[in-house]
Design a protein that fits this description.
Elements: E1 10-14, E2 23-26, H1 37-49, E3 53-59, H2 68-86, E4 91-96, H3 99-110, E5 114-118, H4 123-135, E6 140-143, H5 151-154, H6 162-176, H7 199-205, H8 222-235, H9 240-243, H10 256-260, H11 266-273, H12 285-303, H13 315-323, H14 335-339, H15 346-358, H16 363-375, H17 380-394, H18 401-412, H19 433-439, H20 442-449
Helix pairs in contact: 3-4, 6-12, 12-18, 15-20, 16-17, 16-18, 17-18
The structure holds flavin-adenine dinucleotide and ligand FO1.
Length: 450
């Protein structure tokens, strides 16, 4: 039977003409079967119209600076998605190429009656949506399967800081933090002849750089993401407040690569966490990160078109950085020197090496890492460009609203306040090497990676 679903989770991108025919969920950000509101909506419509459901994935030859190991992680996750969908009689079709070409073509060739996609605030995805909308005449819906409260629901504007969004989240989360329905096997699978996907060959067809580190300890996919979650909740949630900012501890969840690729839903994470007894409510900083900080990033990227440039900073930040544009920089490094961890600072170099070798830099070091790039480049614009490039090339969780927002926080004080004025930074919050030493055993961290 049709599943109840809060209609506020979807947005109509195009009315289109109702007609009979198969239904397509063009999957992009939320690459999972369980707990996926976009898939649930498609499932509902397929039940209502008694028509087959197809999940369609367009594999783009390159995606920003994503490397071989990032595509490897993603494709292995998609392979698991295709197997899981088959057991539900939901077809999975994957094609190499660009969505603005492939999606309208697939709709045309197969008499598709409804197009659904998941939501991402990033310019690349919003542009894909626009270009597809111009070429199709069927109904087209976007479903926010990534946030607990849909971005357009929780706020209609760019929020100033976490505390302004937190208030709105606390009011609305009750209506949206609900259990997910389970999908049942559909009656019939879309039977058009789709050639089997040659997963091994695909990885060699994408045009991506092979970095020296091909594998990471992160195993991809939904099942593994759930295992990581359960382990974190059992062993680390209660000590999270204390250990999360110590890069020598493994006190955080390590969920970000899975959240980025949508292998797990943050709503699932919070539902499972709230079942753990004696864990404080929203006061536990884990909730603040996984709900408020994470959803604040989508808010920033959705309502700030210039989320990846200097002009996207608040005016106070642009002003202060402009005032200090000509301050002498004691150190200046080029992109390659940063990339190869060749600065004078062994803490910064250790963080860069951690990111390159493991594919995931510890969250506390990311703040220091971002801020030092501002301090050791000629202009804030160049700092942004280098930080985004490195973050997108090496972080498994990169190319994500959290990344653009984290970098804009570090370099442009987004969601932060003005601090005591100083050279180069102006009133942007400063972080120092000695500050790290006061926070945790810095030499131990440096030895781990250098
Ligand atoms: P946990 O502490 O276990 O947090 C759980 C989840 O909460 C995270 O996976 C993430 O989804 C969310 N979260 C935690 N901290 C933040 C935060 N500060 N902002 C937004 N969401 C948060 N995060 C990315 O997912 N991708 C990135 O590319 C990225 N780049 C960053 C760059 C800089 C310069 C900074 C300062 C932060 C960046 N972050 C990024 C945010 C944060 O550092 C990571 O989300 C976190 O370290 C991921 O590790 P974890 O899942 O073990 O975190
Ligand atoms: N989305 C796609 O629809 N097709 C892709 O081939 C694709 C590759 C890709 C590689 C790395 C990465 O971090 C994300 C990638 N995504 C891809 C997209 C993605 O998950 C989101 O849609 C975007 O990150 C926008 O938020």
């Amino acid at each position: 039977m049709v599943i109840l679903m809060n209609k506020k989770r979807l947005r109509r991108l195009q009315k289109g003409k109702e007609q009979k025919g198969s239904i397509v969920y063009w999957m992009s950000r939320d690459q999972r079967v369980d707990d996926n509101w976009a898939l649930i909506y498609g499932y509902n419509q397929a039940l209502k119209n008694k028509s087959p459901l197809i999940v369609y994935f367009t594999l783009v030859p390159q995606f920003k600076e994503a490397t071989y190991r990032i595509y490897k992680f993603m494709l292995e996750g998609l392979n698991q998605v295709s197997q899981k969908l088959e057991s539900l009689n939901i077809a999975f079709v994957l094609k190499l190429g660009y969505p603005e070409i492939l999606v309208p073509q697939f709709i045309e060739e197969n008499g598709i009656s409804l197009l659904i996609t998941d939501f991402s605030p990033l310019r690349i995805k919003q542009t894909w949506n626009e270009r597809i909308k111009e070429k199709i005449s069927i109904p087209f819906y976007e479903v926010d399967a990534h946030n607990i409260i849909p971005v357009w629901e929780v706020s209609s504007k760019k929020e100033y800081a976490a505390y302004t969004l937190r208030k709105k989240i606390e009011v609305k989360i009750g209506a949206f933090l609900e259990e997910f329905p389970k999908l049942k096997k559909l009656r019939k699978i879309w039977s058009e002849n789709t050639s089997p996907i040659e997963w091994k060959k695909l990885l060699n067809k994408v045009e991506v750089q092979k970095t020296e580190f091909i594998d990471t300890e992160f195993k991809p996919g939904e099942e593994y993401a759930m295992r990581i979650l359960q382990k974190f909740l059992k062993e680390k949630l209660t000590s999270y407040n204390k250990t999360r900012n110590d890069p020598n501890e493994e006190g955080t969840s390590d969920l970000s690569p899975y959240l980025h690729f949508g292998h797990i839903s943050s709503q699932r994470v919070v539902l499972e966490a709230s079942k753990i007894k004696n864990v404080a409510n929203l006061k536990n900083s884990f909730y603040d990160e996984i709900i408020v900080r994470k959803e604040l990033s989508d808010n920033f990227c959705f309502y700030e078109p210039k989320y990846d440039s200097f002009e996207g900073f608040h005016s106070w930040a642009q002003e202060t950085l402009n005032t200090h544009r000509n301050d002498t920089r004691e150190y200046i490094y080029k992109k390659e020197e940063f990339e190869n961890a060749k600065t004078h600072d062994d803490a910064w170099n250790a963080a860069q090496i951690e990111m390159k070798t493991t594919g995931k830099m510890h969250g506390y070091m990311r703040m220091y890492w971002g801020k030092k790039i501002l301090e050791w480049t000629q202009t804030p614009e160049e700092a942004l460009q280098i930080a985004i490039f490195l973050n997108n090339k090496y972080e498994l969780d990169g190319r994500d609203p959290n990344g653009y927002t984290g970098i804009a926080w570090s370099i442009g004080g987004i969601h932060d306040r003005a601090w005591k004025e100083r050279p180069i930074y102006g009133k942007i919050r400063y972080m120092s090497y000695n500050g790290l030493k006061r926070k945790f055993e810095l030499q131990k961290y440096i030895k781990t990676y250098l």
